[in-house]
Write a structure and sequence with these properties.
Blueprint: E1 8-12, E2 23-28, E3 34-38, H1 39-44, E4 47-51, E5 59-63
Antiparallel strand pairs: 1-4, 2-3, 2-5
């Protein structure tokens, strides 16, 4: 959740066992957005978020 009146960006760590080497789709349950991501990048860098003012994301992480 972005509690700011301006757009924000950040990386959120994802310390999930077994995520390395996989391919995933992140499905935002509050919108129609879907994002395909590499598990190695998610484990190394985290999940990049670019959230509008007062915006919220709730993601489901689905293996591909």
């Amino acid at each position: 959740m972005n509690y700011e009146p301006s757009q924000t960006q950040c990386y959120v760590p994802l310390p999930l066992p077994g995520i390395e080497g996989g391919r995933f789709t992140l499905i935002d349950r509050l919108s129609d957005a879907r994002y395909d991501r590499d598990g190695d990048a998610l484990a190394r860098q985290g999940l990049y978020l670019d959230t509008p003012p007062w915006g919220v994301h709730v993601f489901e992480l689905v293996p591909r």
